């Protein structure tokens, strides 16, 4: 069986298999939102550019047909082996596509790099207009890798574990019945904190602070801060503000079972129907009496950051988180006179002076 057949069959044996696939010893898994024509066009262009540079490319089986036949790429099934031995997973799409690809990258311990074709795209590193430059930096190895904290989630009923999963952005306990409140008791580090009649509660990472948690009224937390967030959703209580706790804490939510509904005016089991969503992708139905425990994940997700590693003159496609907030939310910063502003003004003056010197020299 050839190396390509090994990959297609999901029979990878680590980096050696990827080394055999590409002459340069480098392989990248490409994941795209192929439902969008722009993503399909971009994916084809990336495949051509990478293979021309001697970098092997894998594409996922469900996306292969949409990307068109004859692509110089190896088709792999969606499995834990898809990203094994790859240098990175390059994602073309929005945050939803990147979260889908994170399931493959996390298990293979390889970084993700996203090109945003979605609406906000906080997890993405580059915008469509930066695509060509971003691919050049990947080929040149001009990127760094940072760890993003995850959460491990355990669901128990009567002390028995019925589900174990994880999330990069958030784990959310939500009501299953639209017309009923959810009755939850919240716990921090083994001690009860409060009981809420609510629509749910979001347990988020710093990475997820700008996602569902932010929409529910939670704070924005810079990615390098190590913390866990707990944000109630429409809680009927005075003490129900968002909370930030230690990354060593264990958070829990217990779904109050039938027989306790009277405190909030409920009258049937529907009051306590709940569901757990992790990153909006992995779902667990929660029966009355279920307990959801959230703690720091044992394995992080790796994100690639561009603009480093190529020496002086490397293009800065990736932006610091503050700049990202300003760009994504359209925040007003006119009138800022900070250090960076003075540096830019100084650079502009130096360039203008240099141009004048050149002009004078030419006249002489």
Top keywords for this entry?
364 residues, alpha+beta, Rossmann fold, 6-stranded antiparallel sheet, 9 helices, 27% helix, globular, disordered N terminus
Structure description:
- With 364 residues, the chain is of the alpha+beta class.
- The chain has 2 domains: 3-149 and 301-306, Rossmann fold; 152-296, Probable inorganic polyphosphate/atp-NAD kinase, domain 2 (Tumour Suppressor Smad4, Sandwich).
- The chain is 27% helix and 30% strand.
- A hairpin with a 2-residue loop joins strand 10 (182-188) and strand 11.
- Helix 3 runs parallel beside helix 6.
- The protein is globular.
* Poorly predicted spans: 1-22, 258-262, 264-270, 309-316, 353-364
What is the level-2 CATH architecture name of the largest domain? 3-Layer(aba) Sandwich
Task: Name the helix and strand elements from N-terminus to C-terminus, one letter apiece.
Answer: HHEHEHEEHEHEEEEEEEHEEEEEEEHH
Beta-strand residue fraction: 25-35%
The CATH homology group name of the largest domain: Probable inorganic polyphosphate/atp-NAD kinase, domain 1
Number of domains: 2
Task: Give a nutshell description of this structure.
The chain has about 375 residues and is of the alpha+beta class. The chain has nine helices and 19 strands.
Write the layout of secondary structure elements.
Elements: H1 3-8, H2 15-21, E1 27-32, H3 37-52, E2 56-60, H4 61-67, E3 74-76, E4 88-93, H5 95-108, E5 112-116, H6 131-140, E6 143-148, E7 151-157, E8 160-167, E9 170-175, E10 182-188, E11 191-198, E12 200-204, H7 212-215, E13 228-233, E14 243-245, E15 251-255, E16 274-278, E17 282-286, E18 291-296, E19 301-306, H8 321-329, H9 339-363
Parallel strand pairs: 1-2, 1-4, 2-3, 4-5
Antiparallel strand pairs: 6-19, 7-8, 7-18, 9-12, 9-16, 10-11, 10-15, 12-13, 13-14, 15-18, 16-17
